[in-house]
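Researcher: Here's a chain I'd like modeled. Treat it as a single chain, no partners, no ligands.
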Amino acid sequence: MPDIGAIQKALRAQNLDAWLFYDFHHRDPIAASILGLSGGMGTRRWFYLVPARGTPRKLVHRVESRALDDLPGKTLLYSQLDELYENLPRLIGRAWRVAMQYSPKNAIPYVSMVDAGTIELVRSVGCVVISSADLVQEFEATWSAEQYRTHQAAGRVVDRVTQEAFVHAAATVRAGRPLDEYELQQWMLAQLQAGGVTTADPPIVAIGAHSGDPHYEPAAAKSAPIREGELLLLDVWGKLEAPHSVYYDITWVGYLGATVPPKYAKVFAVVQVARDRAVAYVQSAVKAGRPIQGWQVDGAAREVIRKAGYGKYFVHRLGHNIGQEIHGNGANMDGFETRDVRRVLPHTCFSVEPGIYLPEFGIRSEVNVFVDEGEARVTGPMQTAILPLLA
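Model: Modeled as a single isolated chain. Structure tokens:
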């Protein structure tokens, strides 16, 4: 059951008249999550309006008239399309500024769940449709104290397995035994699972030129051998196997040799400064009580890489929101792939992961930043140099 009072309080704080939820064929998982809906057939359209004040209202098809029975409020019914058109104004009532899962020009695609035709239909009633993006993250992306504890617990396992993977790779190379990316990935998965950590997707294990592919995926049939003299990038994420747990997500790099070559160290130094500049930008703003948006954080790091001459090699956003899914529904640190204007809210967490991806190798350094009341902090260790794995 959703906390209607909390939703109404948030609507008033944002000067909105209502939040209008809509779904058809389960196309909006955000609505299902916030409203606590467990499924059902979903073959007919439904609307659920939560006004800033007063009692919620429902509009459902007679064939699936019980679709929203678990939610409070008065029910309106329709069968024919004309009846839907007649009842929609009654559902909306006097609400004018109405939030929906919509983003102008699809600028934030993560929240654009309502189709253009439905937006047109709601506007035809006389409403101004406002993006629900900040509302969504308030109810989907903010963590409880217990969730923060699950993040820390998962982080201890992920950090340990990451470092042990470097040690395992180095020992195997020293012994002259064969080991490839896929085998190391599967070894890491087993260690994570043994530590009580689960993940929707396996870690990224990338050797040599594969580290220059930000989302490289090793496969059993096509995986590069891990050998001396190569750069090894590990991107590892996971969460506890417990309800409502949240993810922890990091990237570290090591070199299978005794001394890290200058060409790698030089690029890492630029990435490190960009990472630390973004973290400092967030920490300063939060401490000062200054509102910031995701695209601004991205810009703080991207400018460092651009000035160092590697701008065209930083090919993805700076970071993503982290929640019960590895890519959560809160603000991303993104002024590149999108222009994320969502506010960075207290009790949310996101990755900061600048990268430089050259044809012969890539460097990425990733940390997680949790924003609390008056403070932002990195939740795990920060890599300060490429690890010389055979030193």
